[in-house]
């Protein structure tokens, strides 16, 4: 995008003034280089979101923003319950896709002698790829229980530990889930997909802490130089995709009846206080619980693999947070506290020090904000900043963000080439799909360091630690 088309509020914040049907401005967080490299569709989609009924303050895009379905990926928008809407496109198809990081208590020197064996064992034990199926098969009553209780259900069934729950967003269980609002087709797709990674940009990585930026926060989080962590990035699998597909179609057809004029059919939405809106929120919350349970199970499998090789590994959960959700939250807007429905699509919740929702162990430094990189590049742990509430409804970026399409990546790289290049750098990649590896080539993504630095300069979150990959299990 051309920066000349925006008003520069400061070096990392740009404003698009309301025009036409826009009810609020659009705000994009990025430095000049990042905004110059963004697809023009990011600005267009941010402006489209700004036309939706009940939107509050601004339509927001994060530094990693890129073109998405309806909302830009990296989009944040809050809506008033009175007259506002909920949008399936504002959550995305992979409901509650998110990141979990676990502390192993091990050092790089512990891992390297067994790097290949650990990589092969993780690849065998954790199903990955399109349509991957796991060892867990669920009957109807078990699916409904999982959709109701999330990670708590997984722990109760032996796929996790009770101590994990306090370090999972929503305590591992999203209130208000309505499994009865989830279609039989969506449930059928999930019967054999619990404990699976899926495909696309999902992964499990063994990472080493390469750099510390904030000693106090790193100590609170249990991060130390050369310490080894396991990071999992995945979501609600086929169930979430089915929920998104079904409700997007229904919302698009119902919008004109509700008097909603959509600038883009992909922005399909429904009034929050409508039968359709309430059904979507209930189904979406069930999808959140599916994702929380799935990541808890994957964490359990990881513990088992590491336990086989390293009985001394502690494997404590650092944090688990989603970046594709819509939640009812309390925020101060214009000096007044209001209850708002906050959509985050490719954006991570970022709560600052002292916030009552932050786990007690982290309350003096802020919530961990987990930022995934791409294969072969760094990932980051950030800490939430209190200033992010006023700026972006307590939100920050979620990853590097794509710089080119998967189709374009396939023209430039082969999966074998990527695997060999990364192996030469000491990074082992295991994947069932050579094509999938090529589509997720590191060069297909933005510079994650530039993204997190822009987020820090904007006051959305601050850098705590940088991790480099050692092993990557890729879908």
How would you sum up this structure, described in words?
It is built from 14 helices and 19 strands. 32% of the residues lie in helices and 26% in strands. The protein has a single domain (3-474), classed as tRNA-splicing ligase RtcB. It has 475 residues and is an alpha+beta fold.
How would you briefly describe this protein structure?
The chain has 475 residues and is an alpha+beta fold. It has helices spanning 32-37, 40-49, 108-111, 115-125, 140-156, 184-190, 215-221, 237-254, 275-309, 387-392, 406-412, 415-424, 434-439, 448-457; strands spanning 7-10, 13-16, 26-29, 55-66, 73-79, 85-87, 98-107, 203-212, 227-234, 269-271, 316-322, 324-333, 336-345, 348-349, 368-371, 379-384, 395-396, 428-430, 461-474.
Largest sheet entry: 8 strands, mixed
- Give the overall form: globular
Head-to-tail CA distance between termini:
32 Å
* The CATH top-level class label: Alpha Beta
CATH architecture: Alpha-Beta Complex
Work out the strand percent.
Answer: 25-35%
Radius of gyration: 21 Å
* Helix proportion range: 25-40%
Main attributes?
19 strands, alpha+beta, 14 helices, 475 residues, globular, tRNA-splicing ligase RtcB
